[in-house]
Specification:
The structure holds 2 protein chains of 2 kinds.
Chain A (H helix, E strand, L loop, with lengths): L3 E3 L2 E5 L4 E7 L4 E9 L5 E8 L4 E4 L2 E6 L4 E6 L8 E9 L6 E2 L3 E6 L1
Chain B lengths: L3 E4 L2 E4 L5 E7 L6 E7 L3 E10 L2 E4 L6 E3 L9 E3 L8 E9 L8 E4 L3 E5 L1
Parallel strand pairs in B: 2-11
Antiparallel strand pairs in B: 1-3, 3-8, 4-5, 4-9, 5-6, 7-8, 9-10, 9-11
The chains are: A mainly beta, B mainly beta.
Chain lengths: 111, 116
Amino acid sequence: GEDVEQSLFLSVREGDSSVINCTYTDSSSTYLYWYKQEPGAGLQLLTYIFSNMDMKQDQRLTVLLNKKDKHLSLRIADTQTGDSAIYFCADLSGGSYIPTFGRGTSLIVHP
Amino acid sequence: NAGVTQTPKFRILKIGQSMTLQCAQDMNHNYMYWYRQDPGMGLKLIYYSVGAGITDKGEVPNGYNVSRSTTEDFPLRLELAAPSQTSVYFCARPEARQGGSTDTQYFGPGTRLTVL
């Protein structure tokens, strides 16, 4: 089946930029998402990008999509301790209502 | 997470006991989902439903059952709890976004289940 891969951990210093990477295999993905999960909570949609876009910026967040390489990244500028969470990448094929999730990347922000 | 409510928030079961995890949505959406989350393993789809009276298996359905008698409710049943079912369970429904598209998912707060 289709697969979404992420590294499990990322550690950054407060104030630096964080880049979380994701690769996917589904060539028919139409939407790609980033979800954030804070400790003890459910997943919340952080941002998303349509497959016909290369980049999307939303305040401190920048999403880059390389459709040729099936690579998605999430950049968080000026990372704060409140950004510490697990970040999930997910993709959705056209006509489907069931996204495929990655395993999640734990972002640890230290002073 | 007011759009999807889950009860209970926490539960400890003994091996072989049964329980029902409740999930209710505040919108009249046809699609609903149950996932389990294990550390480092991401989300695994257990069951989903495309409307009242219609359910289908996801990736890891063994040991679980669901029903969908109403659009609002989608309970998940564990008949004979096993330690392997220790996990965090999330219920979800599609989320209406700008333009009316409903292709993202809106998650409940989760039920943390321990089977001893």
